[in-house]
Amino acid sequence: TAFLGAPDVPEPWDPLKLTELYKVSGNNPDVAWLREAELKHGRMAMLAVVGIIVQSSGAHLPGSAEVSFGDSNWVTAPSSLPAAAWGQVIAAIGLEEGRNAKGLYDLWNGQTDKREPGDNGWGKSFLSSDPVAADKMRLKELKNGRLAMIAFMGIASNHFIPGALPGCMYS
């Protein structure tokens, strides 16, 4: 049920039937692939929002390769990283994306028997062995990810459109 939505909602809310476009053409993804993308973007947004808040507070990881982390502006701080650091970031992302690519074609076609959307092989130890509790945790992750995507867009709007969010200190 967590794949569809809340336990008390039997079907996903889709008044325009956009999740059924895969039936029209193979060029359109199944809802399983869309859920995979939603979870991935939600996870990245959760990390981004926490990172922006931590960086804006002045907290930094100890140690640096002769890099000054005095710039706590989340937009300009990445440009202060040396090229070698960017190489490490891009290599790490590439390795993880390559590892996660396994089974994406199946999700595009709606085959979830080999791989559940959002299952990147890391989080099984965080889920309860009770199926109901595991579904609740999956739903919490989905909702927190949606909230984080909205929060990140709010922070970005406030930065690029000054005053867009009254009282927002992350600009």
From TrEMBL:
Q: Which keywords does the record carry?
A: Chlorophyll, Chloroplast, Chromophore, Photosynthesis, Plastid
A Pfam cross-reference name: Chloroa_b-bind
Residue sites binding chlorophyll b per the record: 43, 80, 88, 96
Which BP terms does GO give this entry?
photosynthesis, light harvesting
Single GO cellular component annotation? chloroplast
| UniProt-listed InterPro entries | Chloro_AB-bd_pln, Chloroa_b-bind
> Where is this chain's protein located in or outside the cell?
Plastid, Chloroplast
In terms of Gene3D superfamilies, this protein maps to: Chlorophyll a/b binding protein domain
Residues engaged in binding chlorophyll a 1: 13, 38, 41, 141, 144, 146
The protein's superkingdom reads: Eukaryota
Under the GO molecular function aspect, what terms does this record hold?
chlorophyll binding
Residues bound to chlorophyll a 3 are 140
Q: What is this protein called?
A: Chlorophyll a-b binding protein, chloroplastic
Organism for this UniProt entry? Haptolina ericina
